[in-house]
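User: Round two. Same drill as before: sequence, then structure, for each protein.

Assistant: Same drill it is. First protein:
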Amino acid sequence: MKKAISLLLSAMLLLSAFCLAVSAAEEPDDTVGFSADRVVKADLDEVYNILSLDEHPEEDAYKINSAEGLVRLSNAVKNDFYTFEGVTFYITKDIDMSGVEWLPIGPDTATGNSNPSKYFAGTLDGQGHIISNLVYENKTGGDMVAVTGLFGITKGATIKNLILNSDCSFTYSGTAGDNRTGSIIGWANGSNTIENCLSLAAVNGKNYTGGVVGQYPGSANTLLRIVNTTNAGPVTGAGAAGGIGGYMQGTLEIINCRNAGDVSTSSDKVGDAWNAVGGIVARSIPAAAGQTARIDGCINNGTLTGGLTGGIVGAVHVIASETTVQNCINYGELKSDLPNAVSSEILGINAGNEGSEPTLTDNQERSGEEDASWVLPDVIPDYEQDDSPGEPEGENPPEQTTEAQTDDETEPERTTGPNDTTAGRNDTEAPDTTAPSEPAGEDGCQSAVGGICLILLTAGTAAFAVTNRNHRAANRKHR
């Protein structure tokens, strides 16, 4: 009997997977930047809360559902020397950081320009949730490397499906000569991935400033990938400033990303590549053989202000021929009151080696035109999520709370955008479950097939989840 059930479940899952593959092939996802539709919800019924880290330090996943949980993650990296390589953290509620003293996840300072000893190497999956009212200012001076962002230093990390609200801000105001400022990562050391994120936060830096990443000092053996990500917050710097990335060195891929925030620099140096402003990247620097930079399918909608501006890239350096900008569009206005300012709708300036030219292919110069494709993305619709601590068999750690938000509080109303206008539904609203009628003919037939696939997928997944949960519970009993 058990064997027959297993065979039936396997057949149902295979058929449903086939249906999903066919559906995906018929409707490709071509949205530029963040999209709530890309978020895949995880089953977290038996996942421990980050607050139980001390009791269960060897798990491969934890969930975070409070401001205190985010602070616990930051402290574990900074004070306990955890890197969390191979560990995934899932945010399961919108988190309000009002009144919370913050230090970046991964230190806010380092003592050298390479190979920092403390960093975050795990995965943070925001699950489409919003972090709001996170305000951080770094005032570090002296010879330290100053780092500012939600994450300070990362190495081998993945950050995805995360939203930073417009009431968040990240500022560097110190005197350190080496400083990196971004909303999501200040210093992306080594290989990292940022996928399907949305930042509405204000970013104010000095040397290396990016709406998403401040600096990436990579090499031929590392890769920074930023994919399907949107910055819609203002970015200002005293030096290089970019809508997505500031100082980008080494092998780089920025694909299908959008900047809708205004980007500017306070520098009055005209034509200086160190003070470039770029709609997507301030400075692209493949500096050695084997390093390549590809910026593909990106859009800039923000106004750019500086002595040297590029609608997509402000400046390319060293081996310029290793930088490729393709299928990109600039709608943003290029502005400067400085005499002899240098600007271009795609690439501001080539500061590379003599005879080395970047590849610019199929880009569109549409400065000042309206972009009908740009709308502030809705956050992911509300969903039922188990936020229990996740300790089966009666293991329940003491409850911990924070003034900003407790685990039992009602999730705050979702707001996004410069004016905090409501996006998505309130928890009290009943979702509209009325499905439109399908017309007869081919479309109706496809819809019917899709419905059958959905029923099979739901039934098969539910049965599989129950079976899998039982196995996991049994395994825990024998640990």
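Second protein:
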Amino acid sequence: MFDTPLYFYRFIFMAELFLAEALFTHKLKKRSRFPLRVALSLLVCYGVTAVFPIITFDALYVSVMFIMLFVMTIGALYFCYAMRLLDIVFCAVAAYAVQHIAYELYTFMNVAFGLDTGKLAYGETMSSDFSFWMFATYVESYAAVYALMYAFFGRRIGGKDDLHIGNVSLLVISGVIVLVAVLFNAVLTYRVTEDTDVVIVSMTHIYNMICCVLAVAIQFSILGNKKMQTELATLQRLHKQEQQHYMLFKENIDYINLKCHDLKHQIRRIASKGAVGDSVIDEIENAVSIYDSDVKSGNDILDIVLTEKRLTCVNNSIAFSCITDGKQIGFMSDADICALFGNALDNAIEAVCRIPDPEKRSIGLVIKNVKGFVSVNVRNNCLDTPQFDGELLRSTKGDEVYHGYGMKSIKAVTERYGGEMSVVVKDGVFSLNLLFSE
């Protein structure tokens, strides 16, 4: 059994599988002494491959043999990467699917071009001599499949945070599809003869390739859905926190306003006795008036947000002007109003605070009805040209976990009500424009 093509092909198979696994794991968190772990893993895996017995050339036994060698590589990956076992299995199954797609394409190309009848290095004896054209087909097939599958899928794995696999059932389905494709190929390999219809053989290889591609697509749909679920949960949590924040602020500002109102009367009584000069009284009243004046837009929740942001602007020497018809946004929930306008004005304040000249710090907010559409415009001066990730503004803060969700939250709220969002940066002015239909 040690001088058969199948025995030697197993070493090629392991190399193909390790290379495919590298496409999906090279960015993952590595364990300490990673190079040494890789060397030991290769030594053990190839050692086991060398001594693994070939008892029979039955299709079922050969399939089980390859599957067991594949399972051994899962242990090797877990030994090398500091990841959950489920995440390792995810990458390994995707890699096995990619390796099998390349193998099926290689076999299909040789059968289609008449280079071989389909029993390439898999049976008891070679069905034809291994020629230069077969080698060229081998290199091209594997290179093309590996490159394309990495471009579409492998590069989407950026690290540990991208691999919180939640839907285990879909992963199991994907794995079963790949294993069945492997079994089908083994059965085909040992059943095909020179008299077998080439069309049937070719269609079987195409079918197996399609199955494996779909298996990988199913796997990565798990990542896409999990990422969207995580972002949605984060946005909902932030929405709730923002609404609680503004409700607490309203309670505080109502109490402060009451005390400021009483304080102004007390100041006037003191001034009437001539104990304090008029200029001092005016200065104190102006300071107190900052807190004793609410924004009245026609929407109570919006008033709370604008009052807080106005105080922040006063403390940072920012000129804040607003022309707001709050009744126009009555279709929004309280949480969405807090999230949308809180994030929009926070972004504007952050940008304006980086301008060293206080006279150039200005923010404007306009909410109005324009020909049956509700128009929201937040405008502010900016020192630097903002950077974008796609159509969203890139966060300038170090904490990407939360601050990166500012523009995402604005966009999500806008789209929830069927609106459109656009950003314009021109002549040092940043303008966020939102448009809603009534």
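DSSP finds twelve helices and seven strands in the chain.

User: Perfect.
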